[in-house]
Amino acid sequence: MPLHPFRSFVLGSFALAFVASVLRSAESRDPATLATTLCAGCHGANLTGGTAPNLLSVSLKHGNDDASILRAIRDGFPQTGMAGYASVLNEAEQTAMLAYLRKQARDYAFGRIEKPGGPPASVTFKSERQTFRLETVAEGLDTPWGMVFLPDGSMLVSDRVGVLRAIAKDGKLAPESIRGTPQAFVRQDGGYLDLIAHPDHAKNGWLYLAYTELGENRATSMTVIVRGRVRAGAWVDQETIFRAPQKFYFRDTSHYGCRFLWDKNGCLFFTLGERGKSTDAQDLSSPLGKIHRINADGTTPADNPFVKTPGAWPTVWSYGHRHVQGLSYHPVTGKLWATEHGPRNGDELNRIEPGNNYGWPLASWGQVQFNEVIGGTSHPGTEQPVVQWSPTVAPSGIMFYAGDRFPGWKNSLLVCCLFGRQIRRIETDGDRVTHQETIFADQGRVRHAVVGPDGLIYVALNAPGRIARLVPAE
Fold this sequence. Notes:
By secondary structure, the protein is of the alpha+beta class. The protein folds into two domains: about 5-110, Cytochrome c-like domain (Cytochrome Bc1 Complex, Chain D, domain 2); about 120-470, Neuraminidase (6 Propeller), CATH 2.120.10. Helix content is about 15%, strand content about 35%. It has helices at about 5-25, 30-40, 40-45, 65-75, 90-110, 200-205; strands at about 75, 80-85, 120-125, 130-140, 145-150, 155-160, 165, 190-195, 205-215, 220-230, 235-245, 260, 270, 290-295, 315-320, 325-330, 335-340, 345-350, 385-390, 395-400, 415, 420-430, 430-440, 445-450, 455-460, 465-470. Strands 3-4-26-25-24 form a five-stranded antiparallel beta sheet, with no helix packed on it. The longest helix has 21 residues, at about 5-25.
């Protein structure tokens, strides 16, 4: 039986006095030791939740800003049985504890700390406009990236470790991966990336896969796009759709892209990051840091914006991008939207127009890191983001929801976020964002979302790797 809040507070006060005496006599008062001594008993050994909530969550009940966390450390919440530590920790130790919790929260948000026992098979969430369950469909994946539903209701998943996995309609994961798929270079951001089916897949069987390969200089690598078919559990009929010249193969192992989206004319968008070469994003002769548009066979559409520009890469649709990993069309306006990773904050949501410059690295709301040089938060001739996120959310796949199974989310944009293990729901009015909410968090790094043939929303989750679905609930 739970303790009455007052009894819990009294007992907590006695325990706190004992802990204080132990800590005062201890030689080490580093924040990790303090967190273990003071917090782990209720919040779990790695602070991701026990009898008390997860301390590393992006959505703390009493506020996630520095002032709120410091106030919680100092004053506690006596009404819930949590006493404050003002008598135990001096101001410097309270500040050190805050810094330690921030570091641990970042590691947790990026999947480097996991909850003991893994996520529940089913958990219910109540968002502002929709109550739903998050249900596990298939486990045993490593880092699922892209998802494709096939005509028989089964699913193919691209896993970043370099395999395609099949999931039956009943959710059973095939024990063996698809045979004969191309060998990937798997490191940091590299491996198997997005997977998409041709709009007429039921007739032609084409599947499009992005992955990273080593260059002729085996210390370099780059993104490649191929298409093929799956027959009897094997990848066949492979054709190369995009492969850059060797001069664009670099030692850097970041920002390969790659997200796919078909337009209404049957042309394929794909994204390439700038591979750590930020100035290439502004260079129209380089494919890096761009959103591209190609025909289904890899040729260039005649109406692309830079087809007639001397020296320009003809498949470029827009440029000045750092690392786009989300593409979706607005169901009402028909406009193309994209999410982009910023440098240490400054993640972006952009509305994409053909030929426009989205600023990187001339303008960014993020902070300088590595050898990047940022010109400020704006620059003449470049577009401002519709929304910028600081602190970071690390946005990955996005999806405008236009179905009927979740009426409260009709025409909302769902943004899958790696940082914070969350999905953001965004309401728009034309080209403006009018409202945001987090519909769930702390269930795994959310890589991508698609609508299944049953009208439900399926999500690819990393750390741990699994496919789950959102199901409306009363």
